Amino acid sequence: NAGVTQTPKFQVLKTGQSMTLQCAQDMNHEYMSWYRQDPGMGLRLIHYSVGAGITDQGEVPNGYNVSRSTTEDFPLRLLSAAPSQTSVYFCASSYSGRNTGELFFGEGSRLTVL
Amino acid sequence: DAKTTQPPSMDCAEGRAANLPCNHSTISGNEYVYWYRQIHSQGPQYIIHGLKNNETNEMASLIITEDRKSSTLILPHATLRDTAVYYCIVNSGGSNYKLTFGKGTLLTVNP
Questions:
Q1: Positive or negative, the Cα torsion across B27, B31, B33, B36?
Q2: Are A103 and B101 in contact (CB < 8 Å)?
Q3: In sequence order, what are the residues at sequence separation of 6 or more whose Cβ sits closer than 8 angstroms to the Cβ of residue A62?
Q4: Do A97 and B43 touch (CB under 8 A)?
Q5: Chain B contacts of A108, Cβ < 8 Å?
Q6: Fewer CB within 10 Å, N side or C side of chain B?
Q7: What's CA B6's distance to the chain center, in Å?
């Protein structure tokens, strides 16, 4: 199993450009989420999904869109990038939403917006 | 979810036990204590979690006080590769996929 795979690992954007961060998992996990991490800070939840076709907002959703058309994929879209979105983005997945297991994280996507 | 308090940094000698404390005095009855760690900006890695009983796995032990207001993560024989930021998270019973990460404790294992 590859686990949780994020692409790209690094990206530089100009203000106003759009892009999609890809996240895929091959563990048949129902639950997936996106976090961002700014320097010296913990992770903050952006959006999450409890299954295909179902998404919801986390703590910091503004400026980001998500969709979940398949169990495996959970892309994060930036429609008009801003310098405040410079951050490291982590995707995570979980088999069970209950407190019976762990979150599996990807290796992160490092985004710089100029 | 209850708020947690962790020291910002700790040091430990290689081969010794590392004891990382966490205060969660406002924890409620259905909230679990989770520990994750993050090595050098990699994705966070799950370590262990528990509700009220002490727990042990191949990575660590989790000791939760009887009143559940604090806990300690124990790495029994710390190695240089255990240098990381350790996050203590208190989470309600409904959703392990919506965790709230604070700033954690930077554990530095010294040779």
A1: negative
A2: no
A3: none
A4: no
A5: 41-43
A6: C
A7: 9
**For testing the chain A interface, which of B51, B97, B98 should be mutated: the one with the most A CBs within 10 Å?**
B97
User: Which has the higher per-residue pLDDT, A41 or A34?
Assistant: A34
List the beta bridge partners of residue A11. Answer: A111
**Ordered per-residue pLDDT tens for chain B, 111 residues:** 568 999 999 999 999 999 999 999 999 888 889 999 999 879 999 999 999 889 999 999 999 999 999 999 999 999 999 999 999 998 875 666 778 888 899 999 999
Q: Among candidates B58, B76, B72, which has minimal Cα distance to B16? A: B76
**Closest residue of B to A90, CA-based?**
B43
- For tokens 């989420």, the residue is A33
> From CA B27, how far away is CA B31, in angstroms rounded?
6
Which residues touch B39 (CB under 8 Å, ≥6 apart)? Answer: B45, B81, B83, B84
Nearest Cα residue in chain B from A5: B43
- Burial (Cβ within 10 Å: 0-12, 13-18, ≥19) of residue A80: exposed
Closest CA to A108 of A4, A16, A31: A4
Q: Does B45 touch chain A (CB under 8 A)?
A: yes
- Identify the closest residue of chain A to B51 by CA–CA distance: A99
Whether B99 sits inside 8 A of A45 (CB atoms) is yes
CB B84 within 8 A of CB B60: no
Closest partner residue to A43 (CB to CB) among B44, B45, B91 is B44
